[in-house]
Write a structure and sequence with these properties.
By secondary structure, this protein is mostly helical. About 80% of the residues lie in helices and about 0% in strands. Strands 1-2 form a two-stranded antiparallel sheet. The protein is elongated, with a radius of gyration of 28 Å. It starts with a helix and ends with a helix. About 5% of the residues have low confidence.
């Protein structure tokens, strides 16, 4: 068994070296100006890292790395006048380390090797993107998003504080990052696909994280791009497709029997939402709707904070109502919690039914009340983020969605 694992590790190291070496071989040049390392050098270096780790552990790998550093330094100074870059040299060290890593984590080493090969292969496109396509505003927004998501969010405490224990700083930070990420995803999609299809696709995808946040992001863009207000409104309404699908997935995951009385309302909601969104997406006067945006930031941090604090306020009010008036019933709970999130409310209702505290045929009412209150919350967010014109397109779509789902309940 150990021999099999050893052969697998050696094969992984050889594959990594040959993959990266093949890419370097294609770009090493010819004659006296060729680069210092190609296919054979990278393959041997990867195997050297693997064998060194097997024989002497990390100490021997370090000694080999020092020797390799001396060789690479000499080769670099010899070719400095022709190519001042150090990409091949750094890649050679990476291959040595990945070869050693194949002893303990070959899957991780292979994944990193493939990523490195991809970065080397698409270097010109990456250079063009960084120098010609990426604006200063987009670069600044990207750094803010990364710092918030990778530094601030992990350090934020995950516990409930404040009155009624309704405020969670981790939740607030997560929602802020989510709103910024939704704006960034939409921005990238629009840059690639144009406004009509880019906004719609990004809104549906982002809706699986939060349809309410997606509507807020589309509203903010509508303020800056009033000419595309119908397309943006369509994208906002289409984000409800993700909400409906998630409600169905939650019910089906808890117990497939819960869908018996909900499949028709969900199906009607999907159909009406898709029809309304498509009608807004393809107006006769949508000239230039497929033109990609050229400048501007990826998201608005101020809007993210405002929307997040608004949703936190709704949660606080809901907790206060429940604390003062008690558990008046599942209906009241669904109404209050639905203002902030339809998914958590649906999950709690499904759990009650699964536990036998609520009949299966009685979940439709509470579930649709949660969706209805969430739809009302989205109407408010649309008005606040996008103004009256944006809300005038979004609100009818939300009303049509809600009525269609209630009609499905009455029919079934």
């Amino acid at each position: 068994m150990n021999e099999t694992l050893g052969m697998a590790g050696a094969a992984a190291a050889l594959g990594i070296g040959m993959l990266i070496g093949l890419e370097r071989e294609r770009h090493k040049g010819q004659g006296d100006s060729r680069a210092c390392a190609g296919l054979r050098t990278f393959a041997v270096t990867a195997l050297l890292g693997y064998v060194a780790m097997q024989v002497g552990g990390g100490l021997l790998v370090g000694i080999v790395a020092l020797g390799l550093a001396l060789l690479v330094t000499v080769a670099y100074w010899r070719s400095l006048s022709d190519d001042p870059g150090v990409t091949s040299e750094v890649a050679l060290f990476a291959v040595l380390v990945l070869g050693a890593l194949c002893n303990t984590a070959p899957q991780l080493a292979i994944a990193i090797g493939v990523v490195i090969a991809g970065l080397l292969t698409y270097r010109q496109k990456l250079h063009h993107f960084a120098n010609s396509q990426l604006t200063e505003a987009e670069m600044s927004d990207g750094l803010v998003l990364l710092v918030t998501a990778l530094v601030v969010l992990p350090l934020t405490p995950d516990r409930f504080i404040g009155p009624y224990a309704a405020i969670n700083l981790r939740t607030i930070c997560t929602l802020t990052v989510l709103l910024m990420a939704v704006g960034a995803v939409g921005h990238i999609a629009v840059r690639a696909l144009g406004t009509r299809y880019g906004y719609a696709i990004s809104a549906i995808a982002s809706g699986f994280a939060s349809s309410t946040v997606t509507i807020a992001a589309m509203g903010h863009i509508a303020v800056k791009e009033p000419a595309n207000i119908k397309v943006l409104s369509a994208a906002a309404v289409l984000s409800n497709l993700a909400t409906i699908i998630q409600v169905g997935l939650i019910l089906g995951t808890v117990d497939p029997g819960l869908l018996r009385n909900m499949w028709l309302p969900l199906l009607l909601g999907l159909g009406v939402t898709a029809l309304y969104g498509v009608c807004l997406m393809f107006p006769a006067s949508a000239a230039g709707a497929n033109e990609p945006i050229k400048v501007g930031g990826a998201f608005n941090l101020k809007l993210a904070l405002v929307v997040t604090l608004t949703m936190t306020g709704i949660t606080l009010v809901s907790s206060a109502m429940l604390s003062h008036f008690g558990q008046v019933g599942v209906m009241l709970t669904a109404t209050l919690t639905g203002f902030a999130d339809a998914h958590s409310s649906t999950a709690s209702i499904a759990s009650l039914a699964k536990a036998g505290l609520l009949p299966f045929d009685a979940i439709a009412g509470p579930a649709l009340i949660a969706v209805s209150s969430n739809s009302l919350s989205k109407c408010l967010v649309a008005w606040v983020s996008g103004g009256r014109r944006f809300a005038a397109y979004v609100i009818p779509g939300q009303v049509a969605l809600t009525l269609a789902m209630w009609a499905g309940t009455l029919v079934s």
